[in-house]
Design brief:
The protein is built from ten helices and 15 strands. By secondary structure, it is an alpha/beta fold. It has two domains: 167 residues, UDP-N-acetylmuramoyl-L-alanine:D-glutamate ligase, CATH 3.40.1190.20; 114 residues, Ribokinase (UDP-N-acetylmuramoyl-L-alanine:D-glutamate ligase, 3-Layer(aba) Sandwich). The strands form two sheets. Strands 1, 4, 5, 6, 9, 10, 11, 12, 13, 14 and 15 form an eleven-stranded mixed sheet that branches. It has a four-stranded mixed sheet with strand order 3-2-7-8. Helix 4 crosses helix 5, helix 8 packs antiparallel against helix 9 and helix 9 crosses helix 10. The protein binds adenosine-5'-triphosphate (ATP) and magnesium ion. The site of magnesium ion has 3 residues, from loops.
């Protein structure tokens, strides 16, 4: 089974307005609400690709209940740990007059130590763990050490652990040996502590991480993904596409790679799927994720180039 973890999920509300003027009242034309958060995006994208998976994480209050309900309605199984404080709500305002998108992002509920213990217990007891995908940031009250604990549990359970996070959480938890990490360009530069201007710099730096991590997927937006393993350094590129929104592209890329691995594909084929799924996500406006038909169309258009050592 594939498990995803989102420790700080959100109920996302997208509000469409005619025109937003600060200080003035505005009528809402239409509204959409859905379960958000990076691990949850991975779960939804996996579901779209046909991979059974279970979303884990922390939810609380009425908004947490709504989030669970919406996720189940979209066909994603979930087994969240319930916390006392209310799950956050993000508000995204889409202004029809100028196309601007304004996001109001909440911090998230404070999590108590006992609630974290409950979550880690639930994670330890999750049956048949083949993959553990840990994505996104921490809610208030938790320290990056939580990521190392999750990596350790996944590794003990014999799961392939995939980590997509940034900053201190990424730096610390790499030492707990996830199998796969998927930093984007700026996350990798932050980890390196210096700019990594080109593919050569990226591959040189990431090769130094291979004592701890088996596969580094450095995602480069429109330039695709550089995959670095002990036996290969490959740059996979998507075709040029009419991009509508890049929101969720990284999460879809993670889902694509995990889906490929779950199918038993080679690293190279899973990489192809990661690039196709990430790029498929950019074809949909707003927070829309990838669609299967788009992935299938993009798969044969992904090109590979071996990066010299
Ligand atoms: N402008 C684009 N054109 C084509 N493909 C794109 C574009 N942006 C992203 N992608 C695809 O999505 C993948 C992941 O994108 P990116 O490197 O931006 O991830 P990210 O920064 O982690 O995204 P996220 O904001 O979802 O966390 C890329 O490797 C690529 O395949
Ligand atoms: Mg990302």
């Amino acid at each position: 089974m594939i498990y995803t973890v989102t420790l700080n999920p959100a109920l996302d509300r997208t509000l469409h307005v005619e025109s937003l003027v600060p200080g003035q009242s505005t009528r809402i034309r239409s509204e959409a609400r859905y379960a958000g958060g990076k691990g949850i995006d991975v779960s939804r994208a996996l579901r779209e690709m046909g991979s059974d998976n279970v979303a884990l994480g922390l939810v609380g209050g009425f908004d947490g209940k709504e989030l669970e309900g919406r996720l189940l309605l979209s066909g994603v199984a979930c087994r969240f740990t319930h916390i006392a404080n209310e799950t956050r709500t993000n508000i995204i305002i889409q202004d029809a007059s100028n196309g601007a998108e304004t996001a109001l992002l909440a911090r998230g509920p404070e999590v108590q130590p006992a609630e974290l213990m409950d979550f880690l217990d639930a994670l330890e007891r999750s049956p048949d763990m083949d993959f553990l995908v840990v994505s996104g940031s921490l809610p208030p009250g938790l320290t990056p050490e939580v990521y190392s604990r999750m990596m350790a549990i996944g590794n003990e359970r014999g799961a392939k652990v995939v980590l997509d996070t940034a900053g201190a959480a990424l730096r610390q938890s790499i030492r707990a040996r996830p199998a796969v990490i998927k930093p984007n360009r700026s996350e990798l530069a932050e980890l390196a502590g210096r700019p990594l201007p080109d593919v050569k710099a990226i591959s040189e730096y990431t090769r130094g991480l291979l004592d701890l991590v088996s596969i580094v997927l450095a995602s480069l937006g429109p330039d695709g993904i550089v995959m670095v393993t002990k036996s290969e350094v490959v740059h996979a590129r998507p075709p040029k596409v009419p991009v509508k929104s890049t929101v969720g592209a990284g999460d879809c890329a993670v889902a694509g790679f995990v889906h490929g691995m779950a199918l038993g594909e080679s690293n190279l084929d899973a990489l192809r799927r990661a690039v196709a799924a990430g790029t498929a996500a950019t074809l949909n406006a707003g927070t829309g994720l990838c669609r299967c038909a788009d992935i299938d169309e993009l798969l044969p258009q992904v090109t590979f180039e071996e990066v010299g050592r």
